[in-house]
Amino acid sequence: MKFETNWRPDRSRGIPIYRQIADYVRSKIESGEWPTGSRIPTERAAAKVFGVNRSTVVQAFAELAADGLIEGKSGSGTIVSAASAWDKQVPKLPDWESYVKTGVHRPNQRTIQDINHAEFIPDIIRLGTGEPSPDLFPKAMNRIFRQQPSQTDIFGYPEPRGLYSLREEISKHMTGYGISVSPDSVLIVSGALQALQLIALGLLKNGSSVLTESPSYLQSLQVFQSAGMSMWGLPLDEEGLDAIALERYAASGKGTLLYTIPSFHNPTGKVMSLKRRQDVYQLCVKHKLPILEDDAYRDLWLDKPSPPPLKSLDQNGLVLYIGSMSKTLSPGLRIGWVIGPEQVIHRLADVKMQSDYGASTLSQWTVMQFLRQGLYEEHLDQVRKELRSRRAYMLQLLESYLKEAAEWEVPTGGFYIWLRFKRDISVPALFDAAIKDGVLLNPGYLYDKADRNHLRLSYSYASFEQMKTGIERLARSIP
Ligand SMILES: Cc1ncc(COP(=O)(O)O)c(C=O)c1O
Fold it and tell me: Which domains does the chain have, with CATH numbers?
């Protein structure tokens, strides 16, 4: 179990620190949060999290052991003792450890768990994070929050497809991309990620196979695999997803669905050319292969807009289209949308109702106001301007510090630079060394298990100063 808590001993309380730690652990045991047999954090991990010397933790644990609450078990570290006071009252306990291991959903990759944890270490420099920096959050948010939503808009459960007023705005917004869709075929979801989950659970059979780019954001997730599906990675070239490989897979019957990120691809930043979009679309029509187009980064073009979405080419209802407000407005709102044939939208909405009864109405209302008042477009201008200077600065740093060791292409939008090391180096070791040095990286192997020599860098999150320190430290960590 990863040890994560926001609790810290309070030096101003006049109670010895070791005693505060012992009391903290005791309360965890007595409340059943740490049941009998569960492993307690190592002394080293606890000392690190609490920001104290290891000897202080040793003293606290010694007191708990003397009270019979914890015991050392060879091979398992220190565990909550069967003789703990709570256990005496409830002799038969579920073995949570085995439940945790048998749940249907697969755990995140270990490195992703580490990243999710490390992102909240104070002062860590996040060089790979795929979200806008707090500096990029919309200033107009305060203005919107000062307006009063009508009670009927936000206090009830929303209808299955989401607030009609937001679906209307999304439908208008999509016209600007060449997608003509009525609000009836728009489903509001709690982030694009939920769209993937709904599709995995609501549309695909166990045993299906999903084709996708390699590397891909999708390969960093376990959404489809947890639903019993396999994933096939297709190569990318300078025009995007390799159409010849796609044809080969599709013709051999491998593939129930194609998932693609044609615009400002995560993690490579690539943009699929218009010609390739047409080819991919035609191939999928020929093989009756549905396309899941993830367009989360479309609005973040920096040099020129990306070619029209595959969905805009689609008169056959072959493409399911996903959009998101996470990369532009803010990920905490958790608002995305899916567009597709009406029966698919109803099916996904039905599954959604069974999982969360709808995305937060307050978030839906907020996004609707952004779109309706034209504030979204204004905000995008700001974001693009800021991202352009961030991109320029990151590229300048790479030129100065990493030119010998690595190579990269200049992304034309989105957040990412796909950095390739010219020599063989151990990226897992680099990841560990960088964390020790206060820098958090996103290794390429998260997006393609076989990848050995890439990092996904992001210019969207760290401040300018952090970018400089981070890249300097990264350059220093390369063996
Ligand atoms: C391509 C892509 N799709 C979907 C998501 C998830 O977005 P959301 O926050 O809307 O769930 C991400 C986030 O990194 C992404 O990069």
Answer: 17-103 (1.10.10.10), 111-136+378-477 (3.90.1150.10), 141-374 (3.40.640.10)
